[in-house]
Amino acid sequence: MKIKNFTRKRKLISLYGVIFSCFSMMISTVTMPVMAATDVIDSPVITDHDEQSVYDDGYNNGYEQGLAEEHQKQKKVSRPIKSELSIETVSLTPNELANVEYLNAEKALDQQNSKQAALNLESALYYRPHWVMARQKLAALYYGRGNVQEAIATLERGLAAQPNQVDLRLTLAKLLINESQLQAALTVLNERSGHMSIQYLAMRGALAQQLKHHNIALACYQQLIQRAPNDGRWWMGLAIVQEQTKAINKALTSYHKALVVGNISSSSQLFIQQRLNAIKQQHKE
């Protein structure tokens, strides 16, 4: 008889949610007066078979096997066979071992044991180094415990193996922004080559705008407008950069466009009206 242990649990980890929520809010700190928030990245999750389905399948299979055995006994009486119990050792793959460690980390977090959870996540990454979700969670744990350098190092090790991993770059940039290291954050976002997501461009553009890297900011907002021309947030961002570079007529057009297409907050609308009034006043003088 082959003995297997099925562990099928997913838990909502309240501690991790609190720790990781600090990352999702960091982008608001780098925007110009009213830069809009970007969407949250979904992370892959572990999926498992339904426990009741596993139980039902096992029950049904056992019931059918019992009927077949009974039918066989009626047809032929066989000599009794000595019953033996054997235990078979099952070798787990690296991914399976990583999953075990990840689930153990979730259990530790559920018990408010972040130190043990960090050890389990480190083991999970040992078996599966490219697991982005586990690496983000480990970095969040370190950061939540006040170990900023280890949190940064954890993300940097991931990027060393996966240089074009967008989620890791965004997470690291947000962490650096929260530590007031804006130039370092922009450097992290500048290093990536290839396709850039809307969230990536929005954060990069906002950082470049604050740091007065006007060429980078203009390029980011122009790309955002090409992808989502009916989003007023990107027109407002473009207008701010144009005003900073003294392209006043273009800035006026972009500010008005932002009001027309919408998808901006009431505070953003108020900011745009203030800038329009200020520009008009300057031209009168």
TrEMBL record:
InterPro entries: TPR-like_helical_dom_sf, TPR_rpt
TPR repeat coordinates: 132-165
One protein family per Pfam: TPR_19
Annotated transmembrane regions: 12-36
Protein name: Uncharacterized protein
Record keyword Cell wall biogenesis/degradation present: no
Organism encoding this protein: Photobacterium carnosum
Entries under Gene3D superfamilies matching the protein: Tetratricopeptide repeat domain
Record keywords, A-Z: Membrane, TPR repeat, Transmembrane, Transmembrane helix
Signal peptide start and end residues: none
